[in-house]
Specification:
alpha/beta, 223 residues, Rossmann fold
Length: 223
């Protein structure tokens, strides 16, 4: 058995026992595929981790940067109370349309809202609304802007908030200081910002699984 086959089989085992897809999440994945969306949603195990983080956090408000078909949105929104609020930002109108349908089918359309447009513009507009601080921010959009998204996350959170930045390992390329690839440069900038910012305490974790070799950064707002 190859290394990747081993990762797949372990993911399958964990998902069966710890984070099985139900009718709603499975349908969200099917709709994403039918609409031709790229197969880059978080795995079921990662979705369950996001939900657990939100629940541990006691989150009432969540900001997600990068919606895709709303698969991760569903996992996060399920952690919120009935009067909770999740705002998800999506660049593509096509992706957002699929996500809105998936959230409605999940019965989460009263909790979760999808806003369409370039995330940096949407974040500026959101800040102008002066919302209450978000308890959790999940960053999973274009990687070149990771540091900028992180800066906005700091503006929209408060001490005690949690920030998750997905896909920071880039198949190990994040360790290449000479890389000029936009995704690597953006991921390195986010990791280094977490490490140097006086308001953040964070770490990063490498992962393997059905989506290959990658990982995420996790930071807590401390001041």
């Amino acid at each position: 058995m190859s290394e990747s086959q081993t990762w797949d089989s372990v993911d399958t085992y964990f998902n069966q026992h710890l984070s099985p897809d139900d009718e709603v999440t499975a349908a969200a994945l099917r709709d994403a595929e039918a609409a031709g969306l790229p197969p880059i949603a978080v795995t079921a195990s990662q979705g369950k981790l996001l939900r657990l983080l939100a629940e541990i956090q006691g989150a009432r408000t969540v900001l997600e940067i990068g919606t895709l078909a709303g698969y991760s949105t569903i996992w996060l929104a399920r952690a919120l109370p009935a009067d909770g609020r999740l705002i998800s930002l999506e660049y593509s109108p096509v992706h957002a349309e699929v996500a809105v349908r998936n959230l409605a089918r999940a019965g989460l359309d009263k909790v979760a809202e999808v806003r369409v447009g370039a995330a940096l513009d949407s974040l500026a507009a959101l800040a102008d609304e002066n919302p209450p601080p978000f308890d959790l921010v999940f960053i999973d959009a274009d990687k070149g802007n990771n540091a900028a998204y992180l800066e906005w996350a700091l503006r929209l959170t408060a001490p005690g908030s949690l920030i998750v930045v997905d896909n920071v390992v880039r198949d190990g390329r994040v360790a290449d200081a000479d890389s000029t690839a936009e995704d690597v440069v953006g991921s390195r900038a986010a990791v280094e910002l977490i490490g140097s910012h006086p308001r953040l305490s964070g770490t990063a974790v490498q992962t393997v699984g059905s989506k290959g070799y990658d990982g995420f950064a996790l930071a807590r707002v401390v001041a």
